[in-house]
């Protein structure tokens, strides 16, 4: 039997809707895939007929191709990924490649052939190709049957200018847009369950994410910083996160706790966190902040308190989980792969100097009056300067040159 070159075809539909921006989006996805597929034997990735085609080195085995497809499917912007082969534009070759692809499609009963030709210089039309290749497959596999609507397996045949691509095993991708196509955001990243999911949601919509983590250090250990590093490494697998700023926050919380009425402490901590995150966003030239808040989940997440923290900053604050239940967030964290890490206990600034009964309906004028007793203006750049920065592999991110402030 002929050894065909293995390929992974990457399908994206949303990108297809972007009109003249399309090629920019495709290039972004191509670059992201190139970087994330470094550990795999990839020869080249090309744009072919409204898809990206990942060409694997001759002799690549099925297991490796399958692993590459699994990585591809998790990259934002990928709607579907198919494993298959490149072959000659010849009906016998295409049939042979289709049989080889079918053999690797797992257990199934029903199938159909979906052929497309990109160039009419190939004499056989797509309907005829469906017919001819379909009958040959039926003859070779009498135990399988053809089903036009919702078959178990669709055997794709794409004939382009100088080659044909044939595949059978397809898996759904995560969808969304390629990271780097929607700008840069700063995400408040705790070691909890919610904020990694919130970060991932923005990344899936094409934003490069920069994390800011407030550690209780030096009043607590640095354990939460290690968990956040583990979480960032999960996000790094799909090219979502560029860096994390770890901010020692414990001493400032202590000052706040000593100065403001106990019930206002949490609001003060959070307003200061937002301001520091905004300062880091300014330095990174990011366009928005992101949090993992969900309405009413805890005392600081009531409508009144959200308004009071939002008022601390000018940048828009995105809360992609605002209407999501905890159980739904947990399910997403499991899918993302961050849940186990987030379930470990580590004291961060959230557990430090907590009042017995925090305000649940803060009034902005009262908050501002209490805050006036604190040297916030001096603190914000000081805290941002003290942050430790850790970089992660993010193909879409270019570090900003320092500019005079
Ligand atoms: P999470 O599971 O994300 O920690 P949570 O349910 O514990 O959320 P809060 O502690 O009120 O809720 O935090 C709300 C949001 O504020 C978090 O989702 C995160 O975006 C931000 N945040 C909280 N603590 C920190 C921290 N230590 N460092 C950075 N951001 C934080
Ligand atoms: Mg938390």
From TrEMBL:
UniProt domain THUMP: residue ranges: 66-170
EC id: 2.8.1.4
Keywords for the protein's UniProt record, in alphabetical order: ATP-binding, Cytoplasm, Nucleotide-binding, RNA-binding, Thiamine biosynthesis, Transferase, tRNA-binding
Annotated catalysed reactions: [ThiS sulfur-carrier protein]-C-terminal Gly-Gly-AMP + S-sulfanyl-L-cysteinyl-[cysteine desulfurase] + AH2 = [ThiS sulfur-carrier protein]-C-terminal-Gly-aminoethanethioate + L-cysteinyl-[cysteine desulfurase] + A + AMP + 2 H(+); [ThiI sulfur-carrier protein]-S-sulfanyl-L-cysteine + a uridine in tRNA + 2 reduced [2Fe-2S]-[ferredoxin] + ATP + H(+) = [ThiI sulfur-carrier protein]-L-cysteine + a 4-thiouridine in tRNA + 2 oxidized [2Fe-2S]-[ferredoxin] + AMP + diphosphate
Localisation per UniProt entry: Cytoplasm
SUPFAM superfamilies: Adenine nucleotide alpha hydrolases-like, THUMP domain-like
Binding site for ATP: 188-189, 213-214, 270, 292, 301
Pathway where this protein functions: Cofactor biosynthesis; thiamine diphosphate biosynthesis
GO cellular component: cytosol
One GO MF term: ATP binding
InterPro entries, per the entry: Rossmann-like_a/b/a_fold, ThiI_AANH, ThiI_fer, ThiI_N, THUMP_dom, THUMP_ThiI, tRNA_STrfase, tRNA_sulfurtransferase_ThiI
KW Transmembrane (keyword) present: no
Biological-process GO terms, alphabetical: thiamine biosynthetic process; thiamine diphosphate biosynthetic process; thiazole biosynthetic process; tRNA 4-thiouridine biosynthesis
PANTHER family reported for this sequence: TRNA SULFURTRANSFERASE
Free-text function comment from the UniProt entry: Catalyzes the ATP-dependent transfer of a sulfur to tRNA to produce 4-thiouridine in position 8 of tRNAs, which functions as a near-UV photosensor. Also catalyzes the transfer of sulfur to the sulfur carrier protein ThiS, forming ThiS-thiocarboxylate. This is a step in the synthesis of thiazole, in the thiamine biosynthesis pathway. The sulfur is donated as persulfide by IscS.
Name of this protein: Probable tRNA sulfurtransferase
Organism ancestry: Bacteria, Bacillati, Actinomycetota, Coriobacteriia, Eggerthellales
Gene that this sequence comes from: thiI
